[in-house]
UniProtKB/TrEMBL annotation:
Pfam families: PASTA, PBP_dimer, Transpeptidase
Descriptive protein name: Penicillin-binding protein
Domain PASTA span(s) in chain numbering: 656-714
Predominant localisation class: membrane
Places the protein is found: Membrane
Transmembrane segment boundaries: 21-38
Source organism of the structure: Dyadobacter endophyticus
Keyword vocabulary terms for this entry: Carboxypeptidase, Hydrolase, Membrane, Protease, Transmembrane, Transmembrane helix
PANTHER family: PEPTIDOGLYCAN D,D-TRANSPEPTIDASE (PTHR30627), PEPTIDOGLYCAN D,D-TRANSPEPTIDASE FTSI (PTHR30627:SF1)
Keyword Ion transport attached: no
InterPro entries per UniProt: Beta-lactam/transpept, Beta-lactam/transpept-like, PASTA_dom, PBP_dimer, PBP_dimer_sf, PCN-bd_Tpept
Length: 714
């Protein structure tokens, strides 16, 4: 016991001694900084005088020098935003001695007139001469607009600017401009810079401003007429440190395809705005985030981030949450529980609840309530199972993460508004309107995070848009995916609602977006817009949220189209006709691009070619046949395939590779297959070695529209 006490006392003394040592080191460092400042001010010289003496005669002071702002990168390391240096060209007319000045002023004026073209040579010379003899003016800018770095290097050879020539007086005032190579794509997501402060004010630029801005330097500047500050000398007291680089999860291939599909539908429907988010199910990585607002006839731009801050009544996409609460509470079999929705209209208190389908759905199962998006059906189920348990229903919504922000590492997310019974706006029928997506406010990202949890077998994942923060190539901060360790509901409930979401696409309101290549699961949502406190007929907020491929979900996606306009039937303004097709177009393009989620289609290769041993250019095959004493291939040009039959005899078949979108590649070498497909505009990926035994796109017409093909070699 005594030894333990002595050991503890020794550890305590060691910690105290270390703290004292650190304190003394900090004190010594502070003294050194103070001494450095005194030395700079009173002992370091400039033009034969100390800075203090020079400052008394001139308006000199230490000022901050801006640092180079960090870069923003996409997931494939392509550049999304960077800072490029630009320079204002200035001239201190009184620096050069008289001999040099008058010997070279004509040359300078001629160069200015020839290159800047803002004045004549005589005009430039006259203005410079006026400043030279003026008692109150000395510094002027020679060009109204800034120049590039390459132009600056060329100017450094001019008289008054070249260091290896006498004279001096030429100055470059450095500024940094933000450049976005992919602009206007994802403009609102990447963000912008305030031109006055140089700070980020929206998007990623604002959210990670501290990391991106770097540390400014300190140097002597001279304040001249007009409030301009010009650098004095080339050396800085404290060098600026460049900002950190931000590596995002965005994929600009997906972003481009998303914006094209969204813009096309917005133009078609003359809608007010639209938003699409694509997220990776397992990690929460946002691969694309598009937000387009109508700015005039046929003109859409990124001016507001609806994905993060665009709150609205979600409408029928929220029925998924209600159905999950019902399943968790009752453990019912949704294919056995029946609901009579009548003729499509039901009087509820002082309101009439209607289904979108005229004439109603009649008696349907609970599963069909979700598949057909029956408002009456969901309200009746709520009356049956939650009439006396509103708090229990609200508790389920909390369990599903629907009453809180997602916590994405990006400024601007608007919290959801899910009322509870303490709210002044709560009424006896609030729960029933909430059940089908009214009397609440949610952003597209919050809705998507919920659907993503369903796709991820019940495990909620925080959306993320930044993966790493780096200092040059050194990773300073790695942001890992955040996945809740406890599922939002039981596995049985997840299994049931997944089946229902697939039913929405297979047989429900979104059956027209069904794909033959892969399964989509999702839900439509059409909500009347709340205008001046009234839900207005004909003004709709449409959405489709879901995931794909449904059997092994890799991507979740939500599409929002606000206030679509149509002169046709009512259904043409509903989500199934507006938002769902955009989801399908985006999903099709991603499926075509991401080979990893494509299903092998070996069984689509014609049976007659399953025994193919060789295939290729006829001329090459005949050379091989001759060497091996085999029957030669027919013809002298084109392509052919060989198979063996009857005790090793060779059978040749000509192979048509020109008239088909996707030719039969089985039996070909990688060289021949690559040549054929790349000449047809396809991107070829492969695995294995040898000859082609499988191809991800079947021979024949390219129904998928994919321009990427995976070849399996053996």
């Amino acid at each position: 016991m005594r030894n333990e006490v002595e050991s503890g006392q020794n550890n305590k003394k060691a910690l105290i001694n270390r703290a004292r040592l650190v304190g003394w080191l900090l004190f010594v460092l502070a003294i050194m900084v103070f001494v450095k400042l005194i030395r700079v001010q009173y002992y370091d010289t400039f033009k034969g005088k100390t800075w203090a003496e020079y400052s008394e005669k001139n308006d000199l002071k230490l000022d901050t020098i801006p640092a180079m702002r960090g870069n923003i990168y996409a997931s494939d390391n392509s550049l999304l935003a960077t800072s490029l240096p630009y320079y204002y060209v200035g001239f201190d007319t009184k620096v050069a001695d008289s001999s040099y000045f008058y010997d070279h002023i004509d040359e300078l004026a001629s160069l200015l007139a020839k290159n800047f073209k803002e004045n004549t040579a005589e005009g430039y010379k006259s203005k410079i001469m006026r400043y030279r003899v003026s008692k109150s003016k000395r510094y002027l800018r020679l060009k109204s607009k800034e120049i590039t770095h390459l132009e600056r290097e060329r100017l450094k050879k001019w008289p008054f600017f070249a260091k290896n020539r006498k004279g001096g007086g030429g100055k470059f005032e450095t500024i940094y401009k933000r450049y976005k190579p992919f602009s206007p794509m994802a403009d609102r997501t990447i963000g912008g810079i305030d031109p006055k402060s140089g700070r980020g004010y929206i998007g990623l630029e604002a959210s990670f401003d501290k990391q991106l801005e770097g540390r400014p330097g300190i140097g002597w500047v001279e304040k001249v007429e007009g409030g301009l500050k010009i650098p004095v000398g080339d050396a800085l007291n404290v060098q600026p440190a460049a900002g950190r680089d931000i590596y995002t999860t965005l994929d600009m291939n997906y972003q481009e395809r998303t914006e094209i599909a969204l813009r096309r539908k917005l133009l078609e429907m003359d809608a007010d705005f639209g938003s699409v988010i694509i997220m990776e199910v397992a990690t929460g990585e946002i691969k694309a985030m598009a937000n387009l607002t109508k700015r005039g006839p046929g003109k859409y731009e990124e001016v507001f981030n609806y994905a993060l801050a665009g709150s609205n009544d979600p409408g029928s996409t929220f029925k998924l949450a209600t159905m999950m609460a019902l399943l968790e509470e009752t453990q019912m079999d949704p294919d056995q529980v029946m609901v009579n929705t009548g003729n499509g209209a039901m009087k509820f208190r002082n309101h009439v609840i209607r289904d979108a389908h005229r004439g109603g759905f009649g008696t349907i199962t609970a599963s069909q309530v979700l598949e057909k998006s029956s408002n009456i059906g969901i309200v009746q189920l709520m009356q049956r199972y939650f009439a006396n348990k509103p708090d229990k229903y609200l508790q389920y919504l909390k369990q599903f993460h629907l009453n809180q922000p997602t916590g994405i590492h990006m400024k601007g997310e608007k919290p959801p508004l899910i009322r509870d019974r303490k709210s002044k706006q709560w009424s006896s029928y609030s729960m029933y309107f909430m059940a089908h997506g009214y009397e609440m406010q949610m952003t597209p990202l919050q809705t998507l995070a919920f659907y993503n949890a369903v796709a991820n077998n019940g495990y909620w994942v925080r959306p993320m848009i930044v993966r790493e923060i780096r200092n040059a190539e050194e990773i300073e901060d790695k942001i890992p995916p955040y996945v809740e360790d406890k599922p939002i509901c039981s596995p049985e409930t997840i299994r049931k609602v997944k089946k229902m979401l697939e039913g929405v696409v297979n047989a429900g309101l979104a059956k027209h977006i069904k794909s033959d290549l892969y399964q989509i699961a999702g839900k439509t949502g059409t909500a009347r817009k709340l205008i001046d406190g009234v839900y207005t007929e004909g003004k709709n907020y449409t959405s489709f949220a879901g995931y794909f491929p449904a059997d092994k979900p890799k991507y979740s996606c939500i599409v929002i189209i606000d206030n679509p306009k149509s002169t046709g039937a009512d259904y043409t303004r509903y989500a199934g006709s507006v938002a769902a097709p955009v989801f399908k177009e985006v999903a099709d393009r991603i499926y075509a691009y991401d080979v990893a989620i494509q299903k092998p289609v070996r069984d689509s290769v014609p049976e007659k070619s399953e025994d193919v041993k060789w295939a290729g250019i006829t001329e090459d095959l005949n050379v091989i046949s001759k060497s091996l004493n085999m029957t030669p291939a027919p013809g002298e040009s084109g392509y052919a395939a060989a198979s063996l039959y009857k005790k090793g005899k060779t059978k040749w078949n000509p192979r048509d590779v020109e008239s088909r979108d996707v030719p039969d590649l089985q039996g070909m070498s990688m060289r021949d297959a690559l040549y054929l497909m790349e000449n047809k505009g396809f991107r070829v990926t492969f695995k294995g070695s040898g000859k082609v035994v499988e191809q991800s796109l079947p021979p024949g017409a390219n129904k998928s529209g994919s321009k990427t093909i995976l070849l399996t070699l053996q």
